[in-house]
């Protein structure tokens, strides 16, 4: 039995591998790749993960956490542009489980996206092997559990995609490269949080902030005096925008979610929920320890935590108060966001400069306005986009689409712009044409900051400002060097506009990264469709795809 190459899920109790048997399995897995949805000419990397519950104490009280191979947070994924990742996930939880890959575009392959609209959950006691390629990507991302409210229990970890050896990178190799996962956290077990939401109630404000799964002063990053280090900072939390800063040190921003940026130095950096940044930090201060400080932004209650930047030849521990955060004024944060721009002369995943794609010269073929809202539906708290509060179907939408199963969803069940109608429940799917060039405006009429993510894509953040968006707002757009990323913030009573080239066929989740809002309906699926059913546009369904709901009992395709 070779679990890495199984076309179907297996029970954990069936695995009894000798070292010789494991070697045979890896060889067989290599052969298996020749028939999989990945390029056999590109290198591949194998990962075998066991997902379990375990006791964790991040804020000093015992909680039920989700561990991957016994780790909280989970292990990092190291990869290089175009690598094929074969990630075999064994679900040892007593309930279904899925992992999704925030920012990994799954080119032509939304089946592997790991959200319920595309992928059947891994049943308890069984496994599933994700087969995906980090095609034409570089940068800093993360993975997380997408079902139920598992994200509040852990199961997340960093993803780094390095440039290929012959592709120039616009900065010298750092002395080391650290993953820094920051996020708000509840002391309450995720099962209780989920039950509160299922009853139609709101969650209280989080209890604290974690840095790499640890509470105040729990995490330490060791540096050598005079050397420069890369920190890959991702906000893996549930709702809070966070400010990140290091006592006595400047941070040079070099990359945002796969885009090399203009190298601007900051004293502190706002990282909104779901976002990832890479900064360079030089250990150019006297040899001692320094605070790394993280605090919530734009919230009535302010949470703070700290970690330690430890010089290897440190002569004294941290001293003085941790550095204070910036002004709470929205304008400061918005100006910082506008200052983050694409480095047009740097190479991306390919050797050609990032500025060679002139997005500002392309005509918009469609304009979409998305307005969020909160309301009660049938006496329960719900959240919506353009008045539609998403409810999952009984079958993953991508499978229903592939097998042409009627009655699961309706394309066009969410409008392109707000209608002003009362909130209602539906399995919201918006249709879009392959190769269209689309403008999306996120309009936030609420007092909270919001964060939005689109799977399968990077988009250009061309503008943001206060008030309501109008067609005249386009005069403010940055059509030269806007940053390309997959998650953007929308400030309170403000708008953010993005441009997207819809060049990736599939079923793609567009969601609020405020996780309780996402869970209670603030999401929908963008169905990017090509009438030509060709492997050039989209891979066929994976041979090992799990089938559930009304797709149960059907066959994928012959080996």
From TrEMBL:
Q: Which GO terms describe its molecular function?
A: copper ion binding; oxidoreductase activity
Q: Does the keyword Signal apply?
A: no
Q: Which residues form a coiled coil?
A: none
SUPFAM superfamilies, sorted: Cupredoxins (SSF49503)
InterPro entries given in the database record: Cu-oxidase-like_N, Cu-oxidase_2nd, Cu-oxidase_C, Cu-oxidase_fam, Cupredoxin, CuRO_1_AAO-like, CuRO_2_AO-like, CuRO_3_AO-like
Q: Where is the Plastocyanin-like domain?
A: 51-164, 176-314, 394-531
Q: This protein's superkingdom?
A: Eukaryota
Ranges that cross the membrane: 20-40
One short Pfam name that applies is Cu-oxidase_3
Which keywords label this protein?
Glycoprotein, Membrane, Transmembrane, Transmembrane helix
Which family is this protein grouped under?
Belongs to the multicopper oxidase family.
Q: Which PANTHER family match?
A: MULTI-COPPER OXIDASE, MULTI-COPPER OXIDASE TYPE I FAMILY PROTEIN-RELATED
Descriptive protein name: L-ascorbate oxidase-like protein
Q: What is the lineage of its organism?
A: Eukaryota, Viridiplantae, Streptophyta, Embryophyta, Tracheophyta
């Amino acid at each position: 039995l070779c679990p890495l190459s199984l076309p179907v899920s297996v029970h954990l109790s069936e695995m009894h591998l000798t070292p010789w048997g494991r070697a045979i399995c890896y060889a067989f897995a290599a052969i298996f790749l020749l028939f999989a949805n990945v390029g056999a000419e590109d290198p591949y990397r194998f990962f075998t993960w066991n997902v379990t519950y375990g006791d964790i104490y991040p804020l000093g009280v015992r909680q039920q956490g989700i561990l991957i191979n016994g780790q909280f947070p989970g292990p990092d994924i190291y990869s290089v542009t175009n690598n094929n990742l074969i990630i075999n996930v064994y679900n040892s939880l007593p309930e279904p489980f899925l992992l999704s890959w925030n920012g990994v575009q799954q080119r032509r392959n939304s089946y592997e996206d790991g959200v319920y609209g595309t992928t059947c959950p891994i049943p308890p006691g069984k496994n599933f092997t994700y087969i995906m390629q980090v095609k034409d990507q570089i940068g800093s991302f993360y993975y997380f559990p997408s079902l139920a409210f598992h994200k509040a229990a852990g199961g997340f970890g960093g993803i780094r995609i390095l440039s290929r050896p012959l592709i120039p990178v616009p900065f010298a190799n750092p002395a080391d490269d650290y993953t820094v996962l920051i996020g708000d956290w509840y002391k309450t077990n995720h099962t209780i949080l989920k039950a509160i939401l299922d009853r139609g109630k709101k969650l209280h404000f989080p209890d604290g902030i974690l840095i790499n799964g640890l509470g105040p002063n729990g995490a330490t990053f060791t540096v050598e005096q005079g050397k420069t280090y890369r920190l890959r900072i991702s906000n893996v939390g549930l709702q809070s925008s966070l400010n990140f800063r290091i006592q006595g040190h400047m941070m040079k921003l070099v990359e945002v979610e796969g885009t090399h940026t203009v190298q601007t130095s900051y004293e502190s950096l706002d990282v909104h929920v779901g976002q990832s940044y890479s900064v360079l930090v030089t250990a150019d201060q006297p040899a001692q320890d320094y605070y790394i400080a993280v605090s919530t932004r734009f919230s009535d209650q302010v949470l703070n935590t700290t970690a330690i930047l430890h010089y290897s030849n440190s002569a004294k521990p941290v001293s003085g108060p941790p550095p204070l955060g910036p002004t709470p004024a929205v304008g400061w944060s918005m100006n910082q966001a506008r200052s983050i721009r694409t480095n047009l002369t740097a190479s991306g995943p390919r050797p050609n400069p990032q500025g060679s794609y002139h997005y500002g010269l392309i005509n918009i073929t469609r304009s979409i306005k998305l307005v969020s809202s909160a309301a009660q539906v049938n006496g329960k708290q719900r959240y919506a986009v353009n008045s539609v509060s998403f409810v999952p179907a009984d079958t993953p939408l991508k499978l229903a689409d592939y097998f042409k199963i009627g009655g699961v969803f309706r394309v066009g069940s969410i409008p392109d712009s707000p209608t002003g109608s009362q909130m209602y429940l539906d399995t919201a799917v918006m249709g879009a044409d392959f190769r269209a060039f689309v403008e999306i405006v996120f309009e936030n009429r609420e007092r909270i900051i919001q964060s939005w993510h689109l799977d399968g894509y990077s988009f250009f953040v061309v503008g943001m400002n206060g008030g309501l968006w109008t067609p005249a707002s386009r005069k403010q757009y940055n059509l030269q060097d806007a940053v390309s990323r997959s998650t953007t913030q929308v400030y309170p009573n403000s708008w953010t506009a993005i441009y997207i080239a819809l060049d990736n066929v599939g079923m793609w989740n567009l969601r609020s990264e405020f996780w309780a809002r996402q869970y209670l309906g603030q999401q929908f699926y963008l169905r990017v469709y090509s009438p030509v059913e060709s492997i050039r546009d989209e891979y066929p369904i994976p041979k090992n795809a799990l089938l559930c709901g009304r797709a149960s009992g059907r066959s994928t395709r012959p080996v």
